[in-house]
Amino acid sequence: MSFIPANYEPECIWESWDEDTVFDVVEVLHDLVSKPTNGRCHDYADCGWHYSDFNRSAAQEEFREQMNAVLRLNDPPYEIDGFGQIVESAPQEFRTLLNAPVPPGTEHDLVTSKIDAAVARFRTRGATVDDRHHAVRDLADVLEALRSDIKRHMLSSDEGALFDLANNFAIRHNNRRQRGDYDRVTWLRWTFYVYLATIHAVLRVRNAQQNM
Question: CA distances (Å), 133 to each of 17, 162, 210, in order?
Answer without folding.
Answer: 30, 16, 33
